């Protein structure tokens, strides 16, 4: 089928439904923070996402609320070694052990949090994330934040959706390289993977499940 538009022309944005608020049972929910590392977020990083730093306060607020209710927290950490073929696609980034690989100080994992190093965009690919979410923590709901919305966030949300996790994404907690990519990610999460999108992490309430 031929495209009905050419590159550079305006494309109509499909509707992205926004929930006013979402209540999630704290004992069956986890927050996943995707790739909030120096190379993507901090000045001097190799692949800085322009809007990533602006999401940090919102993610901090979300994590504080989650920890107050004993919600599980997991981080993905993009991790590469010498000769990684992904460096043929992107400039060298997130070299294991380097400053750029580290999770930013403002969002440092705390004792009891899970950190999953990953070598590809999908946080579930060749990691222990599914094992902990499903078999150890026994959660059903995931709040996914981080960067980059249309790449690692979306691929992680896709894997979660295909595993029938209920995914919730706050707009103020994710960042993309441009508005199109941001809209693409939110559209796919809310439609294709049957997730929910809220404007802010403050629109998510963690309840005692009763």
Task: Please provide a brief summary of the model.
The chain is of the alpha/beta class and 210 residues long. Helix content is 24%, strand content 21%.
The CATH top-level class label:
Alpha Beta
CATH topology: Rossmann fold
Number of helical elements:
5
Spans where pLDDT lies below 50 across 5 or more residues: none
CATH-defined architecture: 3-Layer(aba) Sandwich
Instruction: Sum up the overall morphology in one term.
Output: globular
- Give the C-alpha Rg: 17 Å
What summary fits the major beta sheet?
Answer: 8 strands, parallel
Strand content: 15-25%
- Kindly give the count of domains: 1
What is the share of helical residues? 10-25%
Mean pLDDT: 95
- Give the structural class: alpha/beta
Extended strand count: 10
The CATH fourth-level homologous superfamily: Isochorismatase-like
Gap between N and C termini: 51 Å
Q: What string, H for helix and E for strand, traces the elements in order? A: EEEHHEEHEHEEHEE
Overview features:
single chain; 210 residues; alpha/beta; Rossmann fold; eight-stranded parallel β-sheet; two-stranded parallel sheet; 5 helices; 24% helix
């Amino acid at each position: 089928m031929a495209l009905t538009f050419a590159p550079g022309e305006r494309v109509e944005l499909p509707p992205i439904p926004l929930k006013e608020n979402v209540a999630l049972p704290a004992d069956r929910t986890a927050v996943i923070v995707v790739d909030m590392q120096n190379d993507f977020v901090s000045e001097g990083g190799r692949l800085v996402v322009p809007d990533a730093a602006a999401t940090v306060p919102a993610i901090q607020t979300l994590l504080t609320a989650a920890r107050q209710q004993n919600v599980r927290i997991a981080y993905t950490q993009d991790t590469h070694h010498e000769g990684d073929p992904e460096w043929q696609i992107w400039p060298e980034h997130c070299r294991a052990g380097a400053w750029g690989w580290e999770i930013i100080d403002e969002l440092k994992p705390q004792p009891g949090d899970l950190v999953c190093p990953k070598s590809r965009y999908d946080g579930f690919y060749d990691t222990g994330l599914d094992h902990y979410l499903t078999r150890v923590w026994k959660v059903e709901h995931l709040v996914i934040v981080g960067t980059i919305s249309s790449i690692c966030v979306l691929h992680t949300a896709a894997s979660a959706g295909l595993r029938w996790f209920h995914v919730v994404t706050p707009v103020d907690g994710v960042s993309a390289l441009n508005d199109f990519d941001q809209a693409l990610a939110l559209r796919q999460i809310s439609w294709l993977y049957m997730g929910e999108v809220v404007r802010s992490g403050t629109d998510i309430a963690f309840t005692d499940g009763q």
